[in-house]
Amino acid sequence: MAPSYETLRDENLDEEDFDYDEVDVSDLKEKYEVQLEQGYDTFVVIDGLPEVTEEQKPKLVKFLLKKLNTVGKTSEDAIFMPFGDHGKSLRFAFVEYSSPAEAAAAVRQLDYSPLDKKHTLRVNKLTDIDRYGREGRIDEEYTPPTIEPFQEKEHLRSFMADPSGRGRDQFVMYRGDTVGVFWNNEKDQPENIVDRPHWTETFVQWSPMGTYLTSVHQQGVQLWGGASWTRIRRFAHPFVNLVAFSPNENYLVTWSNRPISIPDEGHPQLSIDDDGKNYVIWDIETGKPIRSFAQQDTPAGPDGEAKKPAKFPWPAFKWSADDKYVARLNQGTSISVYELPRMNLLDKTTVKLDGVVDFDWAPATVKREGVKEYEQLFCFWTPEIGSNPARVGLMSIPSKQVVRSLNLFSVSDAKLHWQSEGAYLCVKVDRHSKSKKSQATTLEIFRIKEKGVPVEVVDTIKDTVINFAWEPKGDRFVTITTTEPVGATAVPPKTSVAFFCPEKAKGNAVGNFKHLRTLEKKNSNAIYWSPKGRFVVVATVHNTQSSDLDFYDLDFEGEKPESDKDLTANLQLMNTADHYGVTDVEWDPSGRYVATWASAWKHAMENGYHIYDFRGEQLREEPIEKFKQWAWRPRPATLLSKEEQKQIRKNLREYSRIFEQEDAERISSADVAVVQERRRLLEDWYNWREVVEEEVAEERAELGLPADPVEELLKAKTAEVAPNGEEQVIEEIMEEVLEETEEIVN
């Protein structure tokens, strides 16, 4: 057991009265002496307490215990509160917990926590105070801190102001060992902004709103930004493998498959509490770790052996839309929801859900009909256990109220798909027959904004859905289905692409979802919607036999078929392209351009990228050896209201004329620039030739050679000088046939 506070004070008595030279007590000291790191690491120091008298102390201690016991086990006897000569407390106390882990949890969870409206607690380890405050570490005389002169920082969103005035987007390319950031110039060569060799060791990643560019190294993660691309933050997580940002760029999660090992001499950012952990959650603003977590053990199966997960769960920590909560799945048992910024477990307990397989937060704060206070939502699903059916549920946080649940039967698997604004949730349910030999898919669509959250079932799909995607900011979706079993095959199976949209309804209501069209016998396996909606690319990726790119418009302005009159879409195939070996497809944030690339991480054949416009016309193709990665720079959400955006769409034709005129002027000015450059090069050539001719003439004069040797040779050839000095004229007779006639004689 750890020493009591009385023992602690006795150990600090002055030992000058003992003469250890006369008696050898080294063996006793080694056996009984309490080591600082082993004996005092159960103690914490609580600062920021109110000033009380001896009579008020019991009341304060009882009030304090309620908060202290939320993270561990302690008691009144384990709290020592020093008093001054004036008879009042000194506003701090020593607290002993039952284990070092509880003391560490108190520091992590109670530091900066409010005791009441006027007092905020500061919690530190006793060993830390001794380590940093011992004699020699603190000057006896007060030295005022040095205030550095103000230095204006670069605007981290300066990329939103394109110097050309054309509203171009940026992208990053990782090829070979070099990482570069460029402006998109459509058909022309991209304009380089910065190019650095060995900028990253594994990959690069943009933050969700494009503020930071992340580089990943063996020592940790670095964030870069601003006009000069300086390093903004460094997060020293050794051997980091993956990173994930919170939606509003307030926090960062890093993961390494190697547990953290804190050396004896310490770590610049992590503490001994982080030793053995795999995940670290960081505060981006301060650059400090908030909390770390170890890798979870795989839950045991029915036979008692650990089941191998089908896929590594990433992100392991999922964020609410407002960055106030982050949650982690405890496979098969519960969901742990943590509050930010202190990372304490919400209500000090997990959300118990037997058998839970997956969950996902709503990507936006949803305004539900009939609800006054809008909370964050997440959905979850649990499989069939015994006679209990599978279940899909919607839970509101922080109240932990289940606002809607749905029971399902004969379920093989389920996938959760939120619409970008949280207006709809589609649960793709793969159902098996009683014999479990055949499988089909149904779509359970939750209408989140409507009162009571009604669920609409789309059960017209007879095949297995292998891909599903909502239209961003819209209410249409695309599916890809196959009749053959899903899995690795030598030849990818044929697929069908189906489009769905709501029926027309009165007012602002959204009608029932109806099937629009199905395209059979395709090889497509991926769906990429424009971030602005309306346009979609249906592609074939990671396929050695096919690499089709189909560009569709769901609001085609041409004539609408009679069968689609009551539907809210008019489908039209705009173009078809082919990019051999394509591995990835990504729209730019404006929805004007699509980039496709073949990554050397996947194969070594014809690596490089293509750029298309939204209609599918290829603008640029560039093969690049060892091309690895392309990523468009995201943009933050628009500051315009919905009414202002609606007004812009209404007057889009007027804006289009201005843009078309600017494009024509830019192209013509580019042509003029090319002509001027060619004239300049020709003038340089003439000047150089004139200088060389002068130098040659001088050299020939020095050597006594004729200034023009060609002219001298011609004279010698055409005119020979007679012996008496007279010129000799030579006449030559030239015979020329003027006309020739052929006559045949019998």
Automatic annotation (TrEMBL):
Protein family: Belongs to the eIF-3 subunit B family.
A Pfam family annotated for this UniProt entry: eIF2A
Subunit structure: Component of the eukaryotic translation initiation factor 3 (eIF-3) complex.
InterPro entries: EIF3B, eIF3B_RRM, Nucleotide-bd_a/b_plait_sf, RBD_domain_sf, RRM_dom, TIF_beta_prop-like, WD40/YVTN_repeat-like_dom_sf
Membrane-spanning intervals of the chain: none
Localization in the cell: Cytoplasm
Alphabetical UniProt keywords: Cytoplasm, Initiation factor, Protein biosynthesis, RNA-binding
Domain RRM, residue spans: 42-128
Listed name of the protein: Eukaryotic translation initiation factor 3 subunit B
Function: Component of the eukaryotic translation initiation factor 3 (eIF-3) complex, which is involved in protein synthesis and, together with other initiation factors, stimulates binding of mRNA and methionyl-tRNAi to the 40S ribosome. RNA-binding component of the eukaryotic translation initiation factor 3 (eIF-3) complex, which is involved in protein synthesis of a specialized repertoire of mRNAs and, together with other initiation factors, stimulates binding of mRNA and methionyl-tRNAi to the 40S ribosome. The eIF-3 complex specifically targets and initiates translation of a subset of mRNAs involved in cell proliferation.
Keyword Protein biosynthesis: yes
GO molecular function, one term: translation initiation factor activity
CDD domains: RRM_eIF3B
PROSITE patterns found in the cross-reference section: RRM
